[in-house]
């Protein structure tokens, strides 16, 4: 296969060790025509300085550009910084990849091979395995446009043939998402209004509406470190805030005629989130307040990073 140029977009925020491990796994890729654009989202743990020092000392044997965003721009804003740099330099494909991942050596090859099969394919995504328990973390997914929710296939299930079939899906997560540069020209950049969560869901839906296909590629394997901070027992109160707010914003932005349905579902979510993220957890008052703030800010169209 004639290798197309690929820009790998990594976003670091206070996660030096994860980012270093991810970069070292990328060094082993069989696919060779790539360049890593690593964006630091104004980390406070000196990881940017450490990564720059590592680069200067020759720690990484791969083509690497490190960019300091200058502020915490969230997932959408930080990834956009890297995407814009790659786009301006003419890369044909861009691979958005979480920095808390380890990639299989054939993962990028398999994604590009799938993309090359048909011009109507705009986005392809990997099978993602949870490194903590070796269970499936993501095997494609679907979007509910009425409620503002997304459903990942295979989460917390054992590997099986069910998840080994290449198929067209409703969305793939930004944890491992390869797309054509033309997609940016067609639907624009990630929507920074979301700040974190839903920016990739929103982008997938826009791609679908623009007539592009989204394909799950099980032969592309990614291993993801689902840290304890993402478990419901440990979740930051801000997690529920962004899910609550952005779920409603997602419907209001993409299918405004369904916003009454989304509003009713948001009321149900308030109860559900209290059961999941408040009951039997610490900081109950703060957690409850953030849930209600998320609902209120969604109604008020308050966007970007959380602010009282």
From TrEMBL:
Pfam families: Glycos_transf_2 (PF00535). Pathway: Cell wall biogenesis; cell wall polysaccharide biosynthesis. Residues 8-185 form the Glycosyltransferase 2-like domain. The keyword Glycoprotein does not apply. Signal peptide: none annotated. InterPro entries: Glyco_trans_2-like (IPR001173), Nucleotide-diphossugar_trans (IPR029044). Keywords: Glycosyltransferase, Transferase. It comes from the Bacteria. Belongs to the glycosyltransferase 2 family. PANTHER family: GALACTOFURANOSYLTRANSFERASE GLFT2 (PTHR43179:SF12), RHAMNOSYLTRANSFERASE WBBL (PTHR43179). This is Glycosyltransferase family 2 protein. The lineage of its organism: Bacteria, Bacillati, Bacillota, Bacilli, Bacillales.
């Amino acid at each position: 296969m004639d290798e197309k140029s690929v820009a790998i977009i990594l976003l670091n925020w206070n996660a030096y060790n994860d980012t270093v491990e991810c970069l070292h796994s990328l060094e082993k890729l069989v696919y060779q025509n790539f360049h890593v654009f690593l964006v630091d989202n104004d980390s406070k743990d000196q990881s940017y300085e450490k990564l720059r020092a590592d680069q200067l000392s020759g720690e990484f044997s791969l083509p690497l550009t490190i960019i300091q965003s200058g502020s915490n721009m969230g997932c959408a804003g930080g990834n956009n910084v890297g995407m814009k740099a790659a786009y301006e330099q003419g890369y044909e494909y861009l691979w958005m990849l979480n920095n808390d991942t380890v990639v299989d050596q054939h993962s990028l090859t398999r994604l590009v091979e799938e993309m090359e099969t048909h011009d109507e394919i705009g986005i392809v995504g990997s099978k993602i395995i949870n490194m903590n328990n070796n269970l499936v973390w993501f095997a494609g997914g679907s979007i509910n446009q009425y409620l503002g929710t997304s459903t990942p296939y295979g989460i917390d299930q054992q590997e099986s043939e069910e998840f080994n079939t290449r198929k067209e899906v409703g969305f793939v997560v930004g944890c491992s998402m390869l797309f054509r540069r033309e997609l940016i020209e067609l639907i624009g950049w990630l929507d920074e209004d979301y700040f974190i969560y839903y920016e990739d869901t929103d982008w997938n839906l826009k791609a679908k509406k623009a007539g592009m296909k989204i394909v799950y590629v099980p032969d592309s394997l990614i291993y993801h470190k689902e840290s304890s901070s993402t478990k419901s027992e440990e979740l930051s109160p801000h997690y529920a805030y962004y899910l609550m707010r952005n779920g409603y914003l997602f419907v209001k932005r993409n299918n405004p005629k369904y916003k009454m349905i989304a509003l009713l579902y948001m009321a149900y979510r308030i109860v559900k989130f209290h059961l999941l993220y408040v009951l039997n957890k610490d900081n109950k008052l703060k957690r409850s307040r953030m849930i209600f703030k998320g609902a209120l800010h969604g109604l008020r169209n308050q966007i970007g990073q959380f602010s009282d």
